[in-house]
Amino acid sequence: MIDFWLAAGLLLLIALSFLLIPVLRGRRAQREEDRTALNVALYQERVAELQVQQDEGVLNAAQLDTGRAEAARELLADTEGVEKPRESRLGKPLPLLAAFLVPVLGVALYLHYGASDKVELTREFSQPPVSMEDMTRRLERAAAAQPDSPEGLYFLGRAYMAQDRAADAAKVFERTVALAGRQPELLGQWAQAQYFADNKQWSPKVQALTDEALKLDPKEVTSLGLLGIAAFEGQRYQEAIDYWNRLLAQLPPQDNSRAALQGGIDRAAEKLKESGGTVAQKTGMKVRVDLAAEVKAKALPTDTVFIFARAVSGPPAPLAAKRVTVADLPITVELGDADAMMPQLKLSNFPEVQLVARISRAGLPTAGEWIGRSQPLASTTTALQQLTIDSPDQ
């Protein structure tokens, strides 16, 4: 910060030089003018002395003329090279006043419109935090300096959650969603913070947030984990197992949280057995999805592909779904109860299903550009199914 103010001060000195140089030049001109006036006065005094001497008879007329000519030559020699004084239209007070006001106004305008707080924050963030509280304070100042930055608010919300300040985190995530849009990950973080802020009481608001997040992205990990926690707390152990299995499928093999998550699944299974229930066996259908040649020529690698199974006789909502991109095709996926969109709509609850794959450039699961459908199949089918996206989506 000191370097910044030194640089600003140097720039102000340069600006002041443009104002003060004319004033200094004016003073120099004044000195030259004063010297010229003195020389003229001396000339007049010399001529007067010569006139007195001529009146007293000391000098004759010729000597008087010679003396006057000599005095005139000396005056010309003294004033030679002196510039004609220039009169400033602005006068001297105005440049001096401007020289005083420039730094004052410059500092005042910078403090009002400038970004000294952001400069200080940049300096602070260049140093590692000494504690979690220190990091949170920095993030709070960053959020205050940039209230329209969703990234800063997101990290502040995560910091609040790490400090068990769920109520503050919920408010911050709500602001983040308002700025960045209703993205699945943000909705999941907001739902999680709201759940803990409400003392682990499930509410319609939390349910709506998790439903929206999973509708946009069935793999949204925070929502899956939260729904599993809520189900376990509500002694709905099979639901907890299903949600956590879906979450487990999204985690990479080297993820350190896999062991803890598997431990939660095992505890839920034990609780279910203690209550007299049995753990439902995972059922799944394997399907290989590819593109027809004419669709491959038109689809973009970044286009979203929704692969799902829906009941032939039943609700139109997908029973199980996966989300990939055109760049991932061809791909083989497994659809099962762990991929259920809603706990009450599981693949194993319906005897006959249809497999569907849809390309949606807008990322909408309900409408797209191209589609592929299978014939009705038993939900217990274990053989690998081939599905080709080959038709315009009507």
UniProtKB/TrEMBL annotation:
Q: What is this protein called?
A: C-type cytochrome biogenesis protein CcmI
| Record's GO cellular component terms | cell envelope; plasma membrane
Q: Which InterPro entries match?
A: C-type_cytochrome_biogenesis (IPR051263), Cyt_c_biogenesis_CcmI (IPR017560), Ig_CycH (IPR056412), TPR-like_helical_dom_sf (IPR011990), TPR_CcmH_CycH (IPR056413), TPR_rpt (IPR019734)
The cross-references to Gene3D superfamilies, in alphabetical order and at most eight, read: Tetratricopeptide repeat domain
UniProt KW Membrane keyword: yes
A Pfam family? TPR_CcmH_CycH
Source organism (scientific name): Pseudomonas aylmerensis
Keywords attached to this Swiss-Prot or TrEMBL record, sorted alphabetically, are: Cytochrome c-type biogenesis, Membrane, Repeat, TPR repeat, Transmembrane, Transmembrane helix
Tell me where in or outside the cell this protein is found.
Cell envelope
Q: Where is the Cytochrome c-type biogenesis protein H Ig-like domain?
A: 286-390
Q: Name one GO biological process term.
A: cytochrome complex assembly
Record keywords: Nucleotidyltransferase included? Answer: no
Signal peptide position in this chain? none
Lineage at the top is: Bacteria, Pseudomonadati, Pseudomonadota, Gammaproteobacteria, Pseudomonadales
Membrane-spanning segments: 6-24, 94-113
> What are the residue boundaries of the Cytochrome c-type biogenesis protein H TPR domain, all occurrences included?
135-256
Protein origin, superkingdom: Bacteria
The protein's matches in SUPFAM superfamilies, at most eight in alphabetical order, are given as: TPR-like (SSF48452)
Per the record, the major location class is other
